[in-house]
């Protein structure tokens, strides 16, 4: 039985609340807003707010992308030049509508102004996230496995892999748009964006493409295809995509490579178990760690250009992964499609959950709460605890 058949049988089974860094007051250049949503992605909610309230998407600050199939609370910033209010939106009969109130039983969200702050929110700008998760189909053998694996987590933490949300913000999870961009193949990048690796026999017939996809497209995606219909090159049409969407292509590919490096590192040093991940990928989790004081301080770079690794095992892991996927040094810090890509940075190899508690349990379910730092994923912890 797969992970989501146990932890997300309904959105209320997965509740996420951001722990914000900003505190609202009476002064400041930005409004701080609380966004509570159900069964809606963060980007979808932002697009609806932008469209209905005439606030440019790039003016809305947020700290992270929250799960779609969940109930989540997060925070937004908007410049004070825009009017804000208590807004609710619901998806009804195939379209978004503004409503007086949303009862959080369907697909929708509400926004509440909290006050003013002096700066906008940026990605990662939060203390962490508090999760409340219900695990269902929690039969005896799974229960025993769960508590046994939790003893490992208490002692050694768990590998800080990027979760599936990092790869679901683009159209397809089975291909990486950035790989085409790095080769200068903007036509291939657009094809990958809309169809992944699926073959399509009318690619290039932009009118037919527009007619086929139009009911499911965002406005900027329609604008992109209209640009192709007007004769824009693939590169110029690609730049019609909002920058935050274009950046997702970079984040997705770099996150995949980083996960692969961590997986190689774990397999090279520790007893491990492989656990299924999306797209037939695997994640490797250690079962025992002989150098936990070292490991919990280890940070793994994205490219190694600015932060060259000193750990010899890590060096070899990075070399193997980059060679396997044909990553070239000239790609690092490249300017592609109006954005800097393959930039370097550091990410902790290991994370320890805080405040882990069992709130309720029955013969068939258990309800948990725990807090993770910004950028760490509850689903990565749960995949190990349940090994599904």
Fill in the keyword field for this structure.
Alpha-Beta Plaits, 12 helices, alpha+beta, two-stranded antiparallel ribbon, Pseudouridine synthase, globular, 388 residues, ten-stranded mixed sheet, 3 domains, tRNA processing, single chain
Describe the protein in words.
One of its GO terms (biological process) is tRNA pseudouridine synthesis. Pfam families: TruD. The active site is at 67 (nucleophile). Responsible for synthesis of pseudouridine from uracil-13 in transfer RNAs. The structure is a single chain. The model has no long low-confidence stretch (mean pLDDT 93). This protein has three domains: 22-124, Alpha-Beta Plaits (2-Layer Sandwich); 136-166 and 250-386, Pseudouridine synthase (2-Layer Sandwich); 177-245, no CATH class. By secondary structure, it is α+β, with helices and mostly antiparallel strands. It has helices at residues 4-7, 42-53, 140-156, 177-182, 186-195, 206-213, 219-229, 234-238, 243-269, 292-295, 312-324, 378-386; strands spanning 14-20, 30-38, 61-62, 71-79, 87-92, 95-99, 108-117, 126-136, 158-159, 272-276, 282-286, 299-301, 334-336, 339-341, 346-348, 350-351, 354-361, 365-373. It is globular and about 60 Å long. Helix 6 (206-213) packs antiparallel against helix 7 and helix 9 (243-269) crosses helix 11 (312-324). 32% of the residues lie in helices and 26% in strands. The strands form five sheets. Strands 1, 2, 3, 4, 5, 6, 7, 8, 17 and 18 form a ten-stranded mixed β-sheet that branches.
């Amino acid at each position: 039985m797969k992970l989501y058949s146990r932890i997300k049988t309904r959105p209320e089974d997965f509740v996420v609340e951001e722990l914000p860094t900003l505190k609202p007051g009476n002064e400041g250049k930005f409004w701080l807003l609380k966004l509570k949503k159900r069964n809606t992605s963060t980007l979808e909610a932002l697009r609806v707010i932008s469209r209905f309230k005439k606030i440019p998407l790039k003016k809305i600050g947020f700290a992270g992308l929250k799960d779609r199939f969940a109930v989540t609370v997060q925070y937004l910033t908007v410049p004070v030049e825009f009017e804000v209010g208590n807004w609710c939106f619901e998806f009804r009969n195939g379209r978004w509508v503004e409503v007086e109130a949303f009862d959080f039983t369907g697909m929708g969200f509400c926004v509440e102004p909290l006050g003013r702050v002096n700066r906008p929110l940026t990605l990662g700008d939060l203390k962490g996230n508090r999760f409340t998760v219900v695990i269902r189909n929690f039969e005896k053998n799974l229960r025993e496995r769960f508590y046994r694996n939790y003893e490992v987590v208490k002692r050694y933490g768990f590998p800080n892999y990027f979760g599936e949300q990092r790869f679901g913000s683009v159209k397809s999870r089975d291909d990486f748009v950035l790989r085409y961009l790095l080769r200068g193949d903007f036509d291939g990048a657009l094809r990958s964006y809309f169809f992944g690796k699926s073959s399509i026999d009318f690619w290039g017939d932009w009118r037919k493409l527009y007619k086929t996809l139009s009911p499911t497209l965002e406005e900027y995606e329609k604008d992109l295809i209209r640009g192709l219909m007007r004769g824009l090159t693939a590169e110029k049409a690609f730049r019609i995509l909002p920058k935050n969407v274009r950046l997702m292509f970079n984040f997705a590919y770099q996150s995949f490579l980083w996960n692969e490096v961590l997986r190689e590192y774990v397999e090279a040093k520790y007893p491990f178990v492989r656990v299924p991940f999306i797209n037939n990928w695997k994640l490797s989790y250690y079962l025992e760690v002989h150098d936990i004081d070292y490991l919990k301080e280890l940070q793994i770079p994205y490219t190694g250009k600015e932060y060259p690794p000193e750990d010899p095992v890590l060096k070899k892991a990075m070399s193997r992964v980059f060679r396997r996927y044909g990553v070239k040094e000239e790609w690092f810090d490249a300017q592609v499609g109006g954005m800097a890509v393959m930039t370097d940075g550091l990410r902790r190899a290991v994370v320890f959950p805080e405040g882990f508690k069992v709130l309720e349990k029955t013969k068939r379910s258990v309800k948990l709460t725990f807090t993770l730092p910004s950028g760490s994923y509850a689903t990565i912890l749960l995949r190990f605890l349940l090994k599904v």
